[in-house]
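If your schedule permits, I should be very grateful for your opinion on a structural question. Thank you for your consideration; the sequence and its tokens are set out here:

===
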Amino acid sequence: MLPEGRQLKTDAHPLVEITVMAQPDKNRTLVHLVNISGHSSTGYFPQFATGEITIEVETEATSARAVMLDEQLDVSRNGRYITFKLSTLVDYEVVILE
């Protein structure tokens, strides 16, 4: 079903929801990360902060900026993918790839 492979690869905890959204009119891609570790059925509790998360995204982008952390992230390229790392995820983060 994915002859070219996955669009996104990560070592994030399974309770981290990740969504990729292309914005071609702005020539960027947004990677949204939501920590849902505090959600259980109908109850909500303080979520746990994650450790470092590595993310690989298939993109032509050459830079990554974490908005909530207010950090420019180091990126490396591996073929069609760029790789970057988030130091932590508390509740929500959006990474802008340009």
Residues 16 and 35 are 5 Å apart (CA to CA).
